Amino acid sequence: MSSSSAPRTRHLVIVLGDQLDLNALALRDFDVQRDRIWMAEVAQESTHVPSSKIRIALFLSAMRHFAQSLREKSWPLHYTALDDPDNLGSIQAELNKAINLYKPEGLCLTAPGDWRVWQTIKALASAHGLPLQVHEDQGFFTTVRDFATFAKGRKQLRMEYWYRQLRERFNILMENGQPVGGQWNFDAENRASFGKRGPPPIPAPTRIEPDAITRDVLTLVNERFASHSGQLTHFAWPVTREQSLQALAGFIEERLPDFGLYGCDVGCRAVAISLPPVGSAEPEITQRARGGRCRCPGLSPGSRTDCIGRRLCSANSGLAGVCPGYLLDPNA
Questions:
Q1: Domains in the chain and their CATH numbers?
Q2: DSSP per position, 28-55
Q3: Is the pTM of this model over 0.85?
Q4: For 164, what's the count of Cα atoms within 13 Å in the CB-facing half-sphere?
Q5: How far apart are CA 170 and CA 269, in angstroms?
Q6: How do residues 251-278 score in pLDDT, each as one tens digit?
């Protein structure tokens, strides 16, 4: 934590719980001599819309591991833990306290994906008369402004056509301007049901045994959010970039081949793919998926390889993801 005699800060760089990326644009020009990172675990983010214990633990553990990596780099960090005695319980109150403490010349952050959070931060910057520097979220392929251009004048909005446009624009699973394999998707074939006997044997997902940081978080969540849904007894989620890549590799190798057939019946652990430690544009992800083997019936071997690549694109919401670009509009 910080002291009341802390020197004035140039930029107070806000890092939210779903923005744990050392390569974020908001950190690109970080000056360890003049800037400081701000992070806070606050109860309001888990209670304004009730969250499950698993979701809360996943975010808090990921945040604490990210904070540990910042400390290892000796980057100035103001971190408020959920169980700190002076925790005020909300982003608004905690950020306001940090602004009064450090008296920064300005605030800097990656565009939040939550409108409520964005309004809170924008209001605080205005109240303190501070400039607010907002950067695009690199976890998305495009922006809300792009989508607005796409949607203008259309009588009907269908994700399929937006998805195709992004495939063409970023040359994802395309050859000579056409989709690999000759068709855009396999939606008609991924609706097979499990039948009366239930799902076939599917390899278990990768388990990451909780370390000391995660174990502390699990205890804290069970104490502070006892009435929330879910159980943490078997918590084994990835909470760092390295762990997330490990879990994703296991999914691609062992579980993705069956994802196509039962795409509408299988509940994929999508959060392990989409959490910030794994970027949506990781080139090795698509390449590795295309080298996999799909077990969809009725497809030639070559088409199966193409199919599995498309499955990953369908599973990875980041492909059709939209960065909240409205946040870069000062009038928004």
A1: 11-138 (3.40.50.620), 143-219+229-320 (1.25.40)
A2: TT--TTT-EEEEE--THHHHTTT--HHH
A3: no
A4: 10
A5: 26
A6: 888 877 776 666 554 444 444 444 545 4
